[in-house]
Amino acid sequence: MPIRRLKGGQLKVLSADDIAQIHEAVLAVMGDVGVRVEHKGALEIYRDSGCEVDFEKQVVRIPEQVLSKSLSTAPSEFTLHGKTPEYDVHVTLDDVYTIGGSSALSVLDLDGVRRPATLQDLSDLTRLLDGLENLHIMHALVVPQDIPQPGFDRILWATVMKNTNRNYYSQGQWGVSIRDQIEMAKVIQGSEDEIRRHPLFTIVICMMSPLIHSTERVDELIESAGYGIPLYIEVDAMMGGTTPMTVAGTLVEECANVLTGICLAQFVNPGNPCIFAIASGLMNMANGNYCGAGPEVALLHAATAQMAHFYKLPFQGGTGIDATLPDAQAGYERALQVLTDSLAGVNFVHLSIGMMEQMLLASYEQAVIDDEILGAAFRIVRGVEVNRETIGLDVIREVGIGGNYLAHEHTVTHLRPNVWFPKITNRDQWTPWMASGGKDMRQRANDRARQILAEHHPKPLTDDQEREIDRLAAEGQQRALDQGPYSMSGE
Length: 491
What we know:
Elements (H helix, E strand, L loop, with lengths): L15 H18 L1 E3 L2 H9 L3 E3 L4 E3 L2 H10 L4 E3 L8 E3 L5 E2 L7 E3 L5 E3 L2 H12 L7 E2 L12 H10 L6 E3 L4 H15 L2 H6 L3 E7 L4 E2 L1 H12 L4 E5 L2 E2 L7 H22 L5 E5 L2 E3 L6 E2 L3 H16 L4 E3 L10 H16 L4 E2 L5 E2 L4 E3 H19 L5 H4 L1 H7 L9 H10 L11 H6 L5 H15 L7 H21 L8
Helix pairs in contact: 1-9, 3-9, 5-6, 5-18, 6-8, 6-18, 8-9, 9-10, 10-11, 11-12, 12-17
């Protein structure tokens, strides 16, 4: 089924004057405070592109005119490609899509056991998410803990690609890992030229707050942009910890940090697709932990969507919820989060399926529940269609006073386009609900997850392709184990 289009952006939490004030502060941070870029090659690129660079302190300051030129080459619309066209995602500043959860180290399995994630979990969870209606971009929901961690990204790449036709939101470990992923992509796409035209994967570059671009991440950015791979340039701030306590102050740090990375991508490859991305949260002052589901966090993501769109950049936002079980807390946290994000025009609602416990835990059951919540949220975002046909004045006249619309053709015609049909939500009263087993939401989600895993077996690659990417992934991981950290351009 082709990936649907959905327009968000109805919710605005910042006024035009708010945006102008924040933008002025962003320019001051980028031009006066600067960002530490821990990569010699990148510092040289910034200098050669008109930025002020302090090589001793590794600080880059970007003038307003350089920022404006960089933003002028960053596209607002592009396509993220699936293995077949029906899985293509057409990116604009209006459309809303989802990305699955990311890199949890533990799972809550279908037997109710919390344990370290395994490679089999990665395979199964990828298949599960692939079978959900409201998942559009695939991510690796877990990092398996039963494999060596150096070079793990190559194993993730091969495993995910064997279990989905969707565009893959990948990650790296130094620039060399991007080249390894390109080699695996050649097995599927045939040539580097085809990868450049229709890349099947993207790379996320996670910068540090406050205002630090580490050597490893910059290495990955330069290498990815060199191949024309679309980039999510992300910061994961904690309000009150790594950024100011206020939403407005955090917006300034996020924008300065992300835009500095987007400038570098445009210096390396003008026109390279870039997505402004955050997975920011709030520092819980009671225990120092990350909080992703507070109402302030939802406001931050809604406001950041407006700032990204002010800069004409697509935006990824979203965090894991804080609940540790698929319970009422998980339901309300996820619902508030995804509904706010979607109405605010977050173009990619990230970490929106299966991610719990402050991004530490992946849950099979919660993934199914999240898909249900997303379906309901998206129906609200789709809004109300008003025209002569939907108003139905002729039908009202025809049925008249005291009539019945149940059997009318107008009802049959407009039922499915207008009404969202849940898959695991109970809408029976007590007696029929008990007669059918009296299962709660979590139990119904467990049943649905087991059904999908039993029935959904995508085969996006041939046996020969699977063997070859497994071989390349194993070789890449072994090099990482043997050689340790690798930098393309040096520190």
